[in-house]
Design a protein that fits this description.
The complex is a heterodimer of chains A (about 140) and B (about 90). Chain A has about 140 residues and is α+β, with helices and mostly antiparallel strands. Chain A contains 3 helices and 9 strands; from the N terminus they run E-H-E-E-E-H-E-E-E-H-E-E. The chains are: A alpha+beta (about 140), B alpha+beta (about 90).
Chain lengths: ~140, ~90
């Protein structure tokens, strides 16, 4: 399952999606909203996605995982969009495998690749302004 | 002959233009870079973002030299949030 959603994410639900009888281990990564960024206090984060492309890219990552770790049984990824409060989950990656080493490695690979290639953008909302991550260097908008 | 190409904008680009979907007119056989040029002419506020910009057609990343075929929708957007931030971060 590869999904972009505005609804709150449930790590347990994604773990259940990848639960199969032949898997002996499940690793679930949950990315949550942190209250600071580069020394500034973050109030909230806002995520925006190119949803169909994001889901297609997550599926591609899943296919790479299956090729690279034949012991992996199931992969699921979900990313939330919209405004998220501190502590809320923005992304969940769940991987099941016959043995735990494959599950740990594949989950680590999948979240790293997701953050590099999946078209999702994050705006940090501070007490005194906002910044689109990836364009931090830009001058403040003219208008 | 010219063709109209639908272009979708995301994140900062959507904000500065004020729309998520626009249409630009380019010569038949134009490539993605020429679509960007038409876009930046129609919305000069976008011009300064070119060095940061990523392009996609449908659900795939494409290079600026990629030809745009009839029916293609071009997406233009800034770097995705996990990749190579311009300030040091601890992830």
């Amino acid at each position: 399952m590869y999904r972009v959603t505005a609804d709150p994410l449930a790590a347990q639900a994604l773990a259940e999606v990848v639960t199969v009888p032949e898997a002996g281990g499940i690793v679930v990564f949950v990315g949550v909203v942190r209250d600071n960024s580069a020394g500034r206090r973050v109030v909230a984060l806002e995520y925006e996605a190119h949803a169909p492309m994001a889901e297609a890219k997550m599926k591609e990552i899943g296919e790479v995982v299956h090729r690279r770790w034949p012991g992996v049984r199931q992969v699921a990824m979900a990313h939330r969009i919209g405004r998220l409060a501190i502590g809320e989950a923005s992304v969940v990656v769940a991987v099941s495998a016959a043995h735990r080493q494959d599950a740990f490695e594949a989950c680590h690979f999948a979240i790293d690749r997701l953050k590099e290639t999946v078209p999702i953008w994050k705006r940090e909302i501070f007490e005194d302004g906002t910044v689109w991550v990836g364009l931090q260097g830009e001058a403040p908008p003219a208008a | 002959m010219s063709v109209k190409v639908p272009v979708s904008l995301f994140a900062r680009y959507r904000e500065v233009v004020g729309r998520a979907q626009v249409e630009v007119e380019v010569a038949d056989g134009a490539n993605v870079e020429q679509v960007w040029a038409a876009l930046a002419t129609a919305y000069p506020v976008l011009a300064r973002y070119r060095p940061h910009t990523l392009f996609a057609i449908g659900n795939d990343y494409v290079a600026p030299e990629c030809a745009v075929n009839p029916g293609d929708e071009v997406a233009c957007f800034p770097p995705v949030s996990g990749g190579r931030p311009s300030v040091p971060r601890d992830g």
